[in-house]
Amino acid sequence: MAVGKMAETLQAPLATDTAPSSSAQEKCDHSPDVSKLHDPEAATLGKSVSTEPLQPEPPFPEGGLQAWLVVFGAWAGLFAGLGITNTIAVFQSYISTHQLADYSESSIGWIFSLYTFLAFFCGIYIGPIFDKYGPRWLIATGVVCVVAAQMLFSICTEYWHFILVFGVLNGTGCSLLFTPCLASVGHFFRERRGFATGLASAGGSIGGIVAPLMLNSLFSNPSLGWDWGIRIYGFLCLGLLSLALIFVRSRLPPKENASIHPDPKIFKQKPFLYTTIAVFLMEFALFIPIGYISSYARAQGFSESFSFYILTIMNAGSFFGRVLPGWYADRIGAFNTNTIATFLSITACFVIWLPFGHTKPGIIVFAIVIGIAGGTNISITPVCISRLCPTESYGRYYATCFSVVSIACLIGIPIGGSIIGACDGDYWALIVFTGILYVLSFVMFLVAKSASVGWRLLAVY
């Protein structure tokens, strides 16, 4: 399966120790004082922040042909890249009953966990390289890696084949696509960043809708089967990634003197640290249904075709979760939107999946709800991160956050497989575990917001 919409200097100062405006709606600005971003004493926004006017960033285009072409290019790149991520449940379900039928769910899970780990962890260098040199060569290298991986994936037969091809080569290639595609959109939009990022990341949802249907049809065709099914999908990725290579651009000039090495000092900023923890827990939880919903459906006695279709249903929900929340996140705040989506995920796990997931209506409703919530989390998280840094450093901050999150992606699916094995193939403990992770993420999103604006629950942030 298939996720990633993945700052700015203030136009007006943020001061949490001042009285709110007399306007009917309480609103707070979105970014810290950039001059204090690397000052450990000033990094906690809950402390006093200078009320002197800050020098604003140059105006953002907020639209225009070039800006929307960048969004389109990012959409195409994420269709291919995140489309693969959003389809791992199909791959796992298929190879666990064919090429690797003698291996446990936990062992097979490591293939896809390694993929997601590298897809995010490699960004720890890719982000700073993007900030310094731009997206062109990163995307070009990613195209080569991803397309080559699909072609080799079609002829894999041994466990180590899948580890090297899908886990290492495909994971590294997708990492070269994610950060440049999402960060480039942030160069062209500020006030409409949530909406633009949501549109771009919706490509991953469309990929997650198209790929399972396409692969199910190809795999079931006797003249094509697995081999040509994967190759045809690889050619589709080649066409889409070519569009990303053509249209994705950065707006800001390269930072010639910038370091390409990670900067762990940014974790001294408490809002960024707490946000990273919240995203870590959220992605840990999210990749469990992404990785296991197809296997879960088959374990409940549903057909193999339905196990493919349930993933498509989840990705259809994710599409709406990426596009629509991006629009209202620009109005109620990215952190508020992510917090609401996380609460919706808690509800999906404990109120729908746990008691009713064994029924066809129950699992369909769960797939829709968790898809909407997960799509919102994926598209709005980059916007949350962008609120905590200047735009020219966005690639570094985004990639640093997700390099930590990659650890959750690495361990999530194998831990899920171990939980299933410990319960003799029953999924109830896995569902409870997923729900608890979402509860912890919900709490940390509230803490991250409070570190910036205090415990003002209605503040727009």
UniProtKB/TrEMBL annotation:
GO molecular function term, any single one:
transmembrane transporter activity
Whether Iron-sulfur counts among this entry's keywords is no
Q: Where is the secretion signal located? A: none
**Where does it mainly reside?**
membrane
Which residue ranges traverse the bilayer? 67-95, 107-130, 137-153, 159-183, 195-215, 230-250, 271-294, 306-325, 337-356, 362-385, 397-421, 427-448
The source's superkingdom equals Eukaryota
Q: Record's GO cellular component, any one?
A: membrane
Q: How does it sit in the membrane?
A: Multi-pass membrane protein
Q: Where does this protein have compositionally biased stretches of type Basic and acidic residues?
A: 26-38
Region described as Disordered: spans on this chain = 1-38
Keyword field: Membrane, Transmembrane, Transmembrane helix
CDD domains in the cross-refs: MFS_MCT_SLC16
Homology family:
Belongs to the major facilitator superfamily. Monocarboxylate porter (TC 2.A.1.13) family.
The protein's matches in PANTHER family, at most eight in alphabetical order, are given as:
MONOCARBOXYLATE TRANSPORTER, RIBOFLAVIN TRANSPORTER MCH5
Q: What is this protein called?
A: Putative MFS monocarboxylate transporter
Lineage, opening ranks: Eukaryota, Fungi, Dikarya, Ascomycota, Pezizomycotina
